[in-house]
Design brief:
The chain is an alpha/beta fold. It has a single domain, classed as Alpha-Beta Barrel (TIM Barrel). 42% of the residues lie in helices and 15% in strands. It is built from nine helices and nine strands. The protein has a nine-stranded parallel beta sheet, covered by helices on one side. Strand 3, helix 3 and strand 4 form a beta-alpha-beta unit.
């Protein structure tokens, strides 16, 4: 059984805060079904779940997942774009702010509010800017289009204490390539969850990703 995360009071820059560095991205999930999809994710070993702000009633979904997780997972929102999103996220009990871009003011604001901050970046300049602003980790997006070779080259110039996640097009088959290239983990979108799929399908896809993660670990 995978050890689950327990909610921390504070977060450290460069240190991934959960046992399994895979972020379940439930884009498009609706509040009435959020808990039903969170349950199998937790059962499979996921301990980090994100609901993007362009999902219907996203704050209610964050609240519902937080209640089900009961401290066993880091729950937050993705596509966080401004201070209003941060206000809603905190009011819903979320602890993680994920954004698609590098906005230094937003990063500083989110970190100052005690959230785990995971902004998106593509270039070395953006990654360094996010790191300087106080991001706890950085998501490299779009990972599949950039490729593992790009990750490896970028990783060579980044600080060793900077946690990099691959996001965008990551699936159970290519996850190992990004891990070996220097990512600590990945954000998982459409290959894990798509609107309308059953909780049973979410469970099966979650198990596939967790198996791929363990298979990629050194013997």
């Amino acid at each position: 059984m995978t050890k689950h995360y327990r909610v921390a009071a504070t977060f450290d820059v460069g240190s991934w805060p959960t046992a399994l560095p895979l972020v379940a991205i439930l884009r498009g999930v609706e509040p009435h079904e959020a808990a039903a999809h969170a349950d199998p994710l937790l059962e499979a070993g996921f301990d980090c779940i994100e609901v993007p702000t362009n999902s219907p009633g996203w704050a209610d979904s964050v609240r519902a997942i937080g209640a089900v997780a009961a401290g066993r997972a880091l729950v937050g929102a993705g596509t966080v774009l401004d201070a209003d999103d941060l206000d809603m996220l905190i009011a819903a009990g979320g602890r993680m702010a994920v954004s698609p871009h590098t906005d230094e003011t937003l990063i500083e604001d989110a970190a100052g509010r005690g959230l785990f901050v995971l902004p998106g970046a593509m270039t070395a300049s953006e990654v360094f800017a996010a790191h300087r602003a106080g991001a706890h980790a950085v998501k490299l997006f779009p990972a599949a289009q950039l490729g593992a070779g790009y990750v490896k080259a970028l990783r060579a110039v980044l600080p060793p204490d900077l946690s990099l996640l691959a996001v965008g097009g990551v699936n159970p088959d290519n996850l190992v390539d990004f891990l070996r290239a220097g990512c600590v983990g990945a954000g998982l979108g459409g290959d894990l969850y798509r609107p309308g799929q059953s909780a049973r399908e979410t469970a099966a896809r979650a198990r596939d990703f967790v198996a791929a993660w363990h298979a990629a670990q050194p013997a």
